[in-house]
Specification:
This protein is mainly alpha-helical. It has one domain. Helix content is about 75%, strand content about 5%. A two-stranded antiparallel sheet has the order 1-2. Helix 2 packs parallel to helix 4 and helix 4 packs antiparallel against helix 10. The chain starts with 5 loop residues before the first helix and ends with a helix.
Length: about 260
């Protein structure tokens, strides 16, 4: 009967490549720009495979020795996949800031029912959300923040060394803080629309009391949409700029750079 020698099977760089690919590949599934639903899975797999191949040599010294049992190997690979999914999910939470902002803008400008396909989420979203989401993905590559993402993948090995201990409490706390900050920033970026919408509804309420026979809310709907689009054209550059700063600081702060 032929015995299975795990050390012989994992000889050379095979074990190192499996470890690197497990973490980087799982992160590439959720990374902004690369892990989008409109990107072919074959393209994502090819990019993850190529990036893991080039990063194998620099990261080889940080990897542990090959395990002696199948259970230890599965534990190591599972840990790497978990860390990759955790970091990729944090990046997705940062991207959700503009989704929140766009939903608020749609509600305040009368465009909440204007649903279009959002390629970033592969689902229906209000028009402002899809618009801001596509701009954000483009700006990540235009401003060079994609380089920061790739650097953060390498620095992630300092924050979470291979074959380390899983810290569910710290990971849950980091996720909760990221979701809280992202939701707060999304509301803050849409604050001009809150103010304008509140003033408009107060004025309409007073006029409706003075002229109850006229349906002012229906009459003013085109004006509301026009005003929302005008305000969005004025504030879009500022919204994207603040979001890029938040994206930069969040990723850089997470990896300790």
């Amino acid at each position: 009967m032929t015995s299975f020698d795990l050390n012989k099977f994992l000889s050379g760089h095979a074990f190192g490549f499996v470890m690197v690919f497990s973490r980087l590949g799982s992160t590439f599934m959720l990374m902004p720009g690369i892990g989008e639903a409109f990107v072919s899975p074959k393209i994502r797999l090819m990019l993850a495979f190529t990036f893991s191949f080039f990063m194998l040599e620099p990261l080889l010294g940080r990897l542990p020795a090959p395990p002696e049992s199948i259970s230890s190997l599965m534990h190591m690979v599972g840990y790497e996949i978990l860390i990759g999914l955790f970091f990729g999910t944090l990046l997705r939470v940062v991207m959700s800031v503009l989704e929140t902002t766009g939903m608020v803008i749609g509600l305040q400008s009368g465009l909440s029912n204007a649903q279009v396909l959002n390629p970033a989420l592969s689902s229906q979203s209000p028009l402002p959300s899809a618009f801001l989401g596509m701009i954000a993905i483009v700006m990540v590559f235009v401003t060079g923040l994609d380089h920061l993402l790739f650097k953060s993948l390498i620095a992630l090995y300092d924050a979470f060394p291979p074959n380390g201990e899983i810290m569910p409490g710290d990971m849950a706390e980091a996720m909760i803080q990221s979701v809280s900050k992202s939701f707060q920033l999304g509301i803050e970026l849409a604050m001009p629309f809150f103010v304008i919408g509140l003033l408009m509804y107060i004025a309409l309420g007073i006029l409706q009391k003075l002229m109850p026979q006229v349906q002012l809310f229906l009459v003013m709907l085109p004006v509301q949409i026009w005003g929302g689009l005008t305000l969005m054209a004025v504030t879009t550059a500022g919204i994207i700029e603040f979001w890029l700063r938040y994206f930069d600081s969040t990723v850089a702060g997470f990896v300790g750079k």
